[in-house]
Amino acid sequence: MALRLEKVKCPVCGVEFVPPTTHGEVVCPNGHVFNIGDVEENSVLDCEIRDWERFALLPLSMQNAVLEVIQSGRVPKDLLPLMRRLRESGIVVCT
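Above: the chain's sequence. Below: its structure in token form.
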């Protein structure tokens, strides 16, 4: 199962929602229009580490990056493959 990070955050009001498309112009629930074609980050909600023993086997730099993602709720494009692998292996769970 692939990690699909579908939620976007409106740059005007900050509301998070699932857009009908992953590229192009979208309208947030509050009526603000913005373009998501060039999104550099995806957002995740309510992530947690479920397997601390296996998480501890990651290099410290990766651990810090994952903790930052969990804390901020934003996944930079370069960390999407890592977060996908961690989710698929059950180390990290995101809802």
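The chain has three helices and eight strands.
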